[in-house]
Amino acid sequence: MVNGGCSVCGSSEVVYRRRYSGEAFCRRCFLENMVSRVRATISRYELLKPFDKIVVAVSGGKDSLSLLKILYKIEKDFPRASLIAVTIDEGIPEYRDEAVKNAVKYTGNLGIPHYIFGFKEFFGFTLTEIIENGIADIINLQPCTICGVLRRKALTLAARKFEGTVIATAHTLDDIIQTYFLNVLRGDTRFTPIGIRREAEGVIPRVAPFRLIPEYEVVLYAYFSDILFQTHVCPYAERSMRDEIRAFLTKYEEKFPGSLFAALSSFENVYMRSMQKDMKCRMCGEPTSREICRACEIEEKITQRLKR
Ligand code: SF4
Ligand code: ZN
Questions:
Q1: CA–CA dist 43, 209 (Å, integer)
Q2: SS3 for 168?
Q3: pLDDT bucket at 287, cuts 50 / 70 / 90
Q4: Does some domain include residue 129?
Q5: What distance in Å separates the CA atoms of residue 62 and residue 42, rounded to the nearest whole number?
Q6: Residue 120: inside a domain, yes or no?
């Protein structure tokens, strides 16, 4: 409990004080405020349209279940839009099994159609298989790189099956800033703002309705909404470069609240100005900044190794 009243209703039951804005919230007003902020983000960036068939990427973690819950509320304002949930199972025993179970339970409670696709179905191998047989090391890629890039591709393939018009992911402000930093550290300058709707022929746009919400607020939302938290941690998480960046940025934001918003605005001012037109991948036709997209490149390398 924090001293002082809720900035919205005056209740003395304050559960959260937002340091970067100075507002305080009781539980109910915080939950409502999160929905309003996501609604405002959607309208500010025109992320969704009234007739959209929205494919929500539901990993089964707290972020994606929170997103599903909030979109379920917001979608009621758009009676001609529809929601479906898609889970991509990359094949990490225990960790993903638990997440899938949570996703099945949660989508069932909300009555949202839910479909699960495995890496095996799309690519012919699971993530664990190619780590355990040494291929990930041979092609010199971290598990998270393979997992992230191929999950993204799998999600697009799944969304095409349902003729989805937009893919919504639960990337938070923190995720987006981490990715921008990772891109800078890799020397990659050919990238575009993440989670903003960009239309192009034959492409399913991807949007991130949590792009202006810090990760810890999503955690709080999940906690106060009784959303299930996972007990298993991904066994490959600690090997990721993202983890290092996350630790640094979390510490920095704690010390200097509002830094993540400042970083978002600096990065995006530059990217919006220098945005280049996407090319299409020669193999799969998806938008990319190179001749063959990263997903096709990784898939090809693994498939070649598996054939040997
Ligand atoms: Fe995949 Fe890495 Fe996330 Fe594990 S931590 S699910 S390997 S991206
Ligand atoms: Zn491709």
A1: 10
A2: strand
A3: confident
A4: yes
A5: 20
A6: yes
The pLDDT score that the predictor gives to residue 2 is: 46
Q: Would you say 163 and 227 are in contact if contact means Cβ atoms under 8 Å apart?
A: no
Compute the distance from residue 295 Cα to the ligand 2 centre, in Å. 6
Residue with tokens 């190794």, as numbered in its chain = 305
* Shortest-distance Cα residue to atom 7 of ligand 1: 144
Taking alpha carbons only, the member of 127, 238, 259 closest to residue 180 is 259
The DSSP symbol for 118 reads: E
Residue 63 token pair: 């972020």
Residue 91 beta carbon below 6 angstroms from any ligand 1 atom: no
Q: What's the distance, CA 136 to chain centroid?
A: 23
Residues ≥6 apart with Cβ < 8 Å to 199: 205
pLDDT tens string 215-260? 999 999 999 999 989 999 999 987 778 888 999 999 999 999 999 9
Classify residue 236: in a domain, yes or no: yes
Q: Is 279 in the pocket of ligand 1 (CB under 6 A)?
A: no
Could you tell me if the CB of 167 is within 6 A of ligand 1?
no
Looking up residue 57, the CATH number of its domain turns out to be: 3.40.50.620
| Paired strand residues for 134 | none
SS3 content of the chain, % helix, strand, coil (to 5): 50, 10, 40
Helix (H, G, I), strand (E, B) or coil at 32: helix
How many domains does the chain fold into?
A: 1
Q: Note down the domain range covering 175.
A: 46-306
Which atom of ligand 1 is closest in space to residue 148's alpha carbon?
Answer: 8
Residue 200 lies in a domain: yes
The pTM of the full predicted model, rounded to 2 decimals, is 0.93
Q: What is the mean pLDDT of residues 287-304?
A: 92
